[in-house]
Design the sequence.
């Protein structure tokens, strides 16, 4: 019988409303920082012990994540983190495009000075992380920036959906940075979104978000296909055109 892979997650944080939510946060963090590995076998008992909680909230957290496709249970054995394939990635980005482009348009049109100040904080943090080549910190603030745009558009459910999607896509790799783009390049790709928000230009914000999602989505699909050659590029484009492309994307 295969032994479960060791987990190094650490005790869960105390800033979530329930033990289940805290367990979800801890699992998400382990996905983002690479301490839990796609395809490796883990057990509920093992994770509960690592987090310092009982089995029940861990089981409930994993069931929630199973609904998003991030977790796959194996009867009497445990669970694995499940990495989405190229088609699944395209479908996930279709949801991001459907939610984040109109959110960028709405957020830019209605942004308050306080909200723009919060955007500037994340921009500064992204810039600092890019300059330091600190990928974990960069990805943390990347997700916070996208979350703020969704929050400022006024749809809390959209943010929850996008957070789940980003957890799934993170399993393909920490990001498209490895072998594809530098942190500085990704930072520069965010700047048109931030500039448009600052100018409260709704159409420009939507267009910049569309470009960013397309670039990121195509590269992740290409990475999942497994190559940098013409065949992988063409295959990723076909999937994007089939499952994602629309008037704004």
Sequence:
């Amino acid at each position: 019988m295969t032994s479960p892979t060791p987990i190094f997650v650490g005790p869960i944080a105390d800033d979530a409303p329930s033990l289940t939510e805290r367990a979800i946060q801890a699992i998400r963090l382990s996905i983002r920082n690479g301490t839990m590995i796609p395809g490796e076998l883990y057990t509920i008992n093992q994770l509960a012990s690592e987090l310092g909680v009982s089995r029940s909230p861990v089981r409930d957290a994993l069931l929630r994540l199973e609904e998003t496709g991030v977790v796959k249970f194996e009867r009497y054995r445990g669970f694995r983190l499940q990495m989405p394939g190229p088609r699944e990635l395209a479908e996930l980005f279709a949801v991001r495009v459907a939610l984040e482009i109109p959110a960028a348009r709405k957020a830019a049109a209605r942004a308050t000075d306080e909200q723009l100040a919060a955007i500037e904080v994340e921009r500064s943090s992204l810039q600092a992380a890019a300059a330091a080549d600190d990928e974990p910190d960069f990805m943390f603030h990347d997700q916070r920036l996208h979350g703020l745009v969704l929050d400022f558009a006024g749809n809390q459910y959209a943010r929850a959906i996008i957070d789940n999607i980003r957890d799934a896509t993170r399993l393909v790799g920490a990001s498209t940075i490895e072998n594809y783009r530098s942190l500085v390049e990704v930072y520069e790709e965010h700047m048109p979104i931030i500039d448009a928000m600052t100018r409260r230009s709704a159409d420009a914000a939507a267009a910049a978000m569309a470009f960013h999602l397309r670039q990121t989505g195509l590269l992740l699909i290409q990475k999942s296909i497994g190559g940098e050659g013409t065949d992988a590029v063409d295959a990723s484009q076909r999937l994007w055109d089939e499952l994602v492309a629309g008037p704004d994307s």
About this structure: The longest strand covers residues 71-74. The chain has a mean pLDDT of 87.
